[in-house]
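Tokens for chain A. Residues wanted.
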């Protein structure tokens, strides 16, 4: 587990950039997509798209899990690669199955495509040193007090 979630030897600026990316794409997904679906769960359930054939309410529940729980984990930098994998999968399904891989036209999937790219990037890079992953899984467990964060 430690090897999967431990941050690499990123520079302070790289870690800062990863923090900004996590906060931007995690909180935007949570606030603009996840919380709305969570609040309207009973209303959205019966007609929610079911691209994987698991049922409308199950599809909505999986989407809410991704857009609320995984997005919050991503923003916090906790279990970042897991959260990024969940969100990248969700956005990959949205782009290919719901938006039919269109970047324009009647059902543009550009947002899903952009989110997918951000989550895929975080899946490969991890959270960086300014994260809860660093606090819990970092090599020296010194957290944010680590002198490598100094500019």
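Reply:
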């Amino acid at each position: 587990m430690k090897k999967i979630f431990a941050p690499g030897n990123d520079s302070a600026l790289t870690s800062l950039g990863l923090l900004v990316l996590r906060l931007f794409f995690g909180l935007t997904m949570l606030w603009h997509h996840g919380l709305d679906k969570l609040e309207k769960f009973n209303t959205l359930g019966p007609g929610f798209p079911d691209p994987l054939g698991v049922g409308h309410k199950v599809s909505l529940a999986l989407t809410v899990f991704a857009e609320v729980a995984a997005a919050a984990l991503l923003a916090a930098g906790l279990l970042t690669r897991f959260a990024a994998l969940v969100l990248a999968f969700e956005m990959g399904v949205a782009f290919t199955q719901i938006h039919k891989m269109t970047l324009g036209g009647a059902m543009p999937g550009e947002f899903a495509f952009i989110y997918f790219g951000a989550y895929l990037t975080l899946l490969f890079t991890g959270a960086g040193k300014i994260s809860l992953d660093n606090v819990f899984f970092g090599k020296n467990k010194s957290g944010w007090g680590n002198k490598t964060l100094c500019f």
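The mean pLDDT is 88. The two ends are 29 Å apart (CA to CA).
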